[in-house]
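Running this now, will post back.
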Amino acid sequence: MYLYHYGIKELPFTLTPNTSYFFGLPSHKEAIDVLRTALKTGEGFIKVTGEVGTGKTLICRKLLNELPGSFVTAYIPNPYLSPAELRRAVASELNVPLTDHTDQQEFTHRIQQRLIHIHQQNKGVVLIIDEAQALPVESIEALRLITNLETESRKLLQVVLFGQPELDEKLALPELRQLKQRITFSYSLRLMDADQVYQYVRHRLNVAGYRGVEVFNQSQCKRLFNASMGTPRIVNVLCHKSLMLAYGEGKQQVETKHVIHAIKDTEAAIHKGFPLWFMFTLLVVISIAAAGGYIAYAGVTF
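Update: finished.
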């Protein structure tokens, strides 16, 4: 690719959630602070929501990496599971042996014994579920029943749910009101503003090892912001394409035309503004229609 051209050690704008690229956006730092506080106080359910591409999985992995040794963690990245599959996934993460014929009662007993054993070691257990909006309703209820296991002073199992805004819609269902009432801490991730996009782009290039002249200027980053509305994932896609275009022309710095082409080539990007010829044509059509005339335009898509 363009590693040698820009003198970097790795691609700076991949979509893989890499915690070494964690930028520390105010929204991300606040989410992690909320999670740490909630886990320390022993709360049962904690929820973090955000739109697609806002960095939920990155925060999730950073939390997993940074939890102190006083916590035992279980992580479920793909929760589209039936209640039985969910129970087995939890048991597997906590090293609880189950047979093919283990029923729910036996499962509950074994999980409880494992949680009590961990609690006796003065440790807490945290179950982290990514993409939690994919949990079927019946599996969410099964999850609530698992968290009923507790001592007189605290829950034996704490649950952190990461999900898209659809998770809030699902938890608003009447049949899930008991679980919703147990969510004591929640946080909604915000998108980046234009200045944060500029700082974010510079940060990722620096982490990748870039030490040359500025690649993206503030004006170009404003375009990136307008096209992405501050969504980190879309910014990554646009920056990667812009770098490829500049590399293809042997340029060390990205030019505005490269950013524009990258935006046009990305379906998820927002294309603001119309060409002048299109606006002129649209005004003509409106004027004729207002005068009671009729005109048919072929090949113009509104």
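Confidence is low (pLDDT under 50) at residues 274-302. More later if anyone needs it.
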